[in-house]
Automatic annotation (TrEMBL):
Xref: Pfam families: Carb_bind
One function term, GO molecular function aspect: carbohydrate binding
Signal peptide: 1-19
Organism annotation: Mycena albidolilacea
Protein name according to UniProt: Endo-1,3(4)-beta-glucanase 1 carbohydrate binding domain-containing protein
Key word Transcription present: no
InterPro entries assigned: Eng1_septum
Keyword Signal: yes
Keywords: Signal
Sequence ranges assigned to domain Endo-1,3(4)-beta-glucanase 1 carbohydrate binding in this UniProt record: 25-72, 86-146
């Protein structure tokens, strides 16, 4: 118990939480690089790039399912005209995720893009922290408070980056001549605006 308390205290005193620090999720300790803590008591795994989300008492992957209120819906049965429920609101699962059955959070595009390419792999869902939505790549939520995370350690070039030789642009960016460019500037018809 003393050990758990000191971990929680250290996390609270620090505004920067590194990915390898253990954090508390209710009575459990977890590695935030391997799991996400929902509602201070429910862990869902992070499998590579795929962060599973909570839906009722299940964890789900956005490339297979969406969450309507607290029930899973197979993406295969969601048509272009399907809206899902989130408490007293209805939402388009291309633009939002429903947390806790009544709290909508928008998707954000991968870094450097103002619009997302059509498809799921270039966007990530924001999570709930008390009454806010946050990008889990930039913040962590500890006891309902947001804490900044250090920038992810990537070797890829951001928007506007220049390269010599083989291009190493970050995912979603297009290598044009010696620059990393926003794909959406070239093919706006394949891109969609995201809210927020
Ligand atoms: C949801 O958003 C997508 C992409 O913008 C759009 O094609 C689809 O028609 C929308 N669905 C509804 C029900 O509004």
């Amino acid at each position: 118990m003393a050990r758990l308390s000191s971990v929680v205290l250290a996390a609270l005193l620090s505004t920067i939480v590194t990915a390898t620090d253990l954090a508390a999720c209710g009575d459990a300790q977890y590695d935030p690089s391997k799991d996400t803590c929902f509602d201070n008591n429910f862990l869902c795994p992070i499998d590579g790039e795929v962060r599973e989300l909570r839906c009722g008492d299940a964890c789900y992957s956005l490339d297979q399912f969406s969450c309507s209120n607290t029930a899973l819906v197979d993406n295969a049965v969601i048509g272009l005209d399907t809206l899902l429920d989130c408490g007293d609101k209805r939402f388009n699962s291309t633009d939002y995720v429903c947390h806790d059955g009544d709290f909508l959070c928008p998707f954000v595009c991968i870094d450097g893009l103002s619009r997302c390419l059509t498809g799921t792999f270039d966007r990530r869902a924001t999570l709930r922290c008390a009454d806010a939505c946050y990008d889990p790549v930039k913040f962590s939520c500890i006891d309902d408070e947001l804490h900044g995370l250090p920038p992810p350690n990537t070797n890829c070039l951001p928007l506007g980056g220049t390269f010599m030789g083989a291009p190493t642009c970050c995912p979603g960016l297009l290598a044009v001549a010696d620059h990393c460019r926003d794909f959406c500037d070239f093919s706006p018809q394949l891109c969609s605006e995201v809210p927020g």
